[in-house]
Write a structure and sequence with these properties.
With about 725 residues, the chain is mainly alpha-helical. The protein contains 32 helices and 10 strands.
Length: about 725
């Protein structure tokens, strides 16, 4: 039985802009969705989210190309000869197993740059994949990346979509997939050894590089080698400045240049930010920057004692003073957003700017190296931007001192309303039957994504998953209860199609508590049923049953028979997946009666489908034929081709079970074609398995093995449990 509930079926800065209705207002209630680049900083610690440059969101029919996620090497890499030599010896003379290098040093010292430069030179030695993840160990405005989050992204990049829940199972699948491979993994900004350990691949010829502000000596038990990184020497710092501002300017003011390098304390990040300030003022002498950097009153050498923080602050203050008042304000506003990575439309919404002013702000911040332009993401194709952790903290600190609390709150709410509106627009396209509850906005966004197809909507949800999660958590902290449960509700297509079970459950737990605090009974009912589906799909059937029972009780108290029928249907699915067929049939029968009385045609057809599946599992093939025929006709009538194909697949099973193998196989082949048209790989695999069963039951062992093999090939990258079952089938068929 398909473990989904009733939902629809999906999928340099961009020059095109999103178009959408709406205008800035306060307190509006809507019932439908509103339809720089600069040189890379040498320190290259300006990192944000986990990067994946593979395009697929739905599970591919075949294994994807090898993953290529390493950051580009810094253009102005300076020195580090001793460190590179030591790292090179590690790669050449490693012991058996995965080689592990920990590169540690103060913030902004160039750990990411060194690791990227080193690993880029080794790419030919690791042809099976190169992975990158920012573990966010030192980002003040966001939580460190959980190992399960990173493993989910790594496995998804390898083509997996049906992933297990829980760190143990994810880590086991990661080790299984990397066994025998030669891969390189870069884990940036790690906080603890425990954060790193589950992410180590099992390939005996693989290499892992970890960067951290801490030594992470706990990884010694994993065979790690340790490389500490210090600041640049005076000559190297001057050379870095020279490459950034031009040798001619250095030649004209050699003493001022050396003074700037000294004031930056050899910290590459500070040197690059200072160079950015000098570069955008070609007529200003270098000595002016030296004067600006020395304006703090304390010795820059003191910064070495506290990991370079003071040098960076002085340099950032100097760059900040270079900004025009509107751009300085935008810098402060972006620093307080709860998201680590953002796109231009988010900037426009948060800062209340039009397209032209948004471009000017982003270009201005990138020009002086206060903002990093990441380029287009690998899923939705939108340009992304981020702050280095220290720069983000600098901007946020300025906002606290220069802007009022209410002004800061408005900025964050504008961004949150944008994410709610955009996610709701995707929901309306991907799951129109689910898009039924109102949305409350304080600020209606003027631009929304142009979701022309289900695929573009699903791609946007996949690309923004981290940002949506951060927004939901921050909304809870802000006390915006309606926004919390409404955003969780709008994310339904993301949960249904991509199956991030941990987030699915977390969002609905937070959403349920928020709906209860706000006293919104419809929101509470939706959180219980949609959250119950998440628990059920994650295999937590008993908890799911409790959620559906609460939803049913609330619906009866509220006199809402439609919501009650939904709760009964969901509870029935939980019992079906748990193997309790009699209880499932009783609940589906009650749900059917209520839906028929309400005239809920699609609901009637879906419940008939479920009853037909139960009849099949109970050995009553003739009853299943009748139920599934009615379900197929009803789903075609309401134009639900995906679920109509599900009904046809089960109908083929029923006819084969009733003795008409030819008709059953014909229907199964038709269902397979329909699922190929909709791109549902999971159901293609299921139908091939069904066809294998019919062949096996009719004595065609070779045909059955061929169909099982095709099914296994489709299941392998998306569902480990199903793949294991098919492998067992094949083994038994050969026995």
């Amino acid at each position: 039985m398909e473990s989904r509930t009733e939902g629809g079926e999906p999928g340099r800065r961009n020059t095109s802009r999103w178009q959408g209705g709406g205008q800035n207002a306060s307190g509006n209630r809507l019932d439908t969705a509103a339809s720089v680049a600069g040189p890379v900083i040498q320190s290259h610690e300006i990192q944000g989210g986990v990067h994946f440059h593979t395009t697929p969101v739905a599970a591919p029919a075949a294994a994807p190309a090898a993953v290529r996620q390493l950051l580009p090497g810094p253009a102005d890499f300076i020195g580090r000869v001793t460190e590179l030599r030591a790292l090179g010896l590690l790669a050449e003379h490693r012991a058996p197993g995965t080689a592990l290098a920990v590169i540690s040093g103060p913030a902004g010292v160039g750990k990411t740059a060194l690791a990227s430069h080193w690993l880029r030179g080794l790419i030919p030695q690791y042809p099976d994949g190169q992975f990158y993840a920012d573990l966010r160990g030192y980002a003040e405005a966001s939580e460190p990346a959980a190992p399960a989050e990173v493993l989910t992204q790594f496995l998804r990049a390898l083509g997996h979509t049906g992933l297990p829940e829980g760190l143990g199972e994810l880590a086991a699948l990661w080790r299984t997939r990397t066994a025998g491979l030669r891969v390189v993994v870069m884990l940036d900004n790690a906080l603890t050894a425990a954060q790193v350990r589950p992410l180590l691949p099992s390939g005996t010829g693989s290499l892992v590089a970890v960067t951290s502000r801490l030594r992470l000596s706990g990884l010694a038990v994993d065979g790690a080698s340790f490389q500490s990184l210090d600041v640049l020497g005076p000559d190297e710092a001057v050379e870095l400045l020279s490459r950034r501002i031009g040798a001619d300017r250095v030649g004209r003011e050699p003493e001022a240049t050396r003074e700037v390098a000294a004031l930056c304390a050899g910290l590459p990040l500070a040197v690059c930010v200072a160079a950015g300030r000098i570069a955008v003022r070609p007529r200003q002498p270098v000595s002016a920057t030296a004067t600006a950097l020395g304006r703090g009153g304390s010795s820059p050498l003191d910064t070495l004692e506290i990991a370079g923080e003071h040098a960076v602050r002085v340099a950032l203050d100097a760059s900040y003073r270079l900004l025009s008042p509107p751009h300085a304000r935008g810098y402060r506003q972006l620093g307080i957003l709860p998201v680590a990575v953002f796109s231009a439309p988010v900037v426009a919404a948060a800062c209340g700017l039009d397209d032209e002013k948004t471009d000017r702000l982003l270009d201005s911040l990138a020009e002086v190296h206060l903002l990093e332009d990441l380029g287009p993401d690998g899923i939705a194709g939108l340009d992304r931007f981020r702050f280095h952790d220290l720069i983000r903290a600098h901007a946020a600190g300025l906002a606290v001192h220069e802007d009022g609390a209410e002004e800061r709150r408005v900025v964050v709410r504008r961004a949150a309303d944008f994410y709610l509106a955009a996610t709701t627009a995707a929901e309306a396209l991907l799951a129109p039957s689910h898009r039924s509850l109102p949305r409350d906005y304080l600020y209606v966004p003027e631009q929304l994504p142009p979701f022309a197809t289900a695929a573009t909507a699903l791609n946007w949800l996949a690309a923004e998953q981290d940002q949506l999660t951060a927004t939901l958590r921050d909304a809870e902290a802000q006390g915006w209860d309606d926004l919390v449960w409404q955003l969780a509700d709008a994310m339904w297509p993301l949960f249904l199609r991509l199956r991030p079970y941990t987030l699915w459950i977390e969002a609905h737990e937070r959403g349920l508590a928020a709906a209860r605090r706000s006293g919104d009974r419809r929101g509470e009912s939706r959180m219980l049923t949609s959250g119950g589906a998440g628990l059920r799909n994650a295999g937590r059937h008993e908890e799911a049953g409790k959620w559906f029972a609460l939803a049913g009780e609330n619906a009866r108290q509220d006199g809402d028979p439609l919501a009650e029928s939904q709760a009964l249907h969901g509870a029935g699915q939980s019992h079906r997946l748990a193997g309790r067929l009699r209880e499932a049939e009783e609940l589906f029968t009650r749900a059917l009666e209520m839906r028929q009385a309400l005239g809920h045609d699609r609901g009637v057809a879906l419940t008939l489908l479920c009853l037909g599946d139960v009849a099949l599992a109970s050995g009553r093939a003739p009853d299943a034929v009748d139920l599934l025929t009615r379900a197929r006709e009803g789903l075609l009538a309401v134009r639900d081709p995906y679920d109509a194909a599900r009904a046809l697949a089960h109908l083929g099973q029923a006819h084969a079970g009733a003795g008409d193998t030819a008709l059953g196989e014909d229907e199964l082949h038709r269902a397979l074609a329909e699922f190929e048209e909709t791109g549902s790989v999971n159901w293609q695999a299921r139908v091939l398995e069904m066809l294998g069963e019919t062949a096996q039951e009719s004595g065609r062992a070779e045909v059955a093995r061929e169909r099982y093999s095709r099914s296994l090939a489709l299941y392998a990258p998306i569902s480990p449990s199903d793949a294991g079952r098919l492998a067992d089938r094949l083994a038994r068929s050969h026995g």
